[in-house]
């Protein structure tokens, strides 16, 4: 019954900002590895950011621009995206990775388009 629902995507100009949200039900985000992935047309899905507890890591292309965070009370994970570039255009997916089993859960994605 684990469900992940993303929101916050949209159209933004280069240099703009968006905040993506992922509301999780059926489990607690504090117990699992949470991540944001993205997939552009014709490209493989890639890891953007991952968080476990107080630790977070990012792909090099977004370091200094994106920030992943969790609100355990709201059972929600966020991706704050600043200084957006056209190459950030993709469908962004929320991911939950069970630490004990490695089972993966995915949201349906939210479209982010960066264009002038």
Task: State the helix count.
Answer: 0
Counting DSSP E segments of at least 2 residues, the number of strands comes to 11
Largest β sheet strand count, sense and barrel closure: 7 strands, mixed
Helix content: under 10%
**Poorly predicted sequence stretches spanning 5 or more consecutive residues:** none
**What is Rg?**
13 Å
Alpha carbon gap, first and last residue:
40 Å
Mean pLDDT: 96
Strand content: over 45%
| Sequence of secondary-structure elements | EEEEEEEEEEE
> Helix- and strand-based class?
mainly beta
Large-scale geometry = globular
Overview of the structural elements:
- With 116 residues, the protein is mainly β.
- 0% of the residues lie in helices and 53% in strands.
- The chain has no helices and 11 strands.
- Strands 2, 4, 5, 6, 9, 10 and 11 form a 7-stranded mixed beta sheet that branches.
- β9 (90-97) and β10 form a beta hairpin.
- It starts with a strand and ends with a strand.
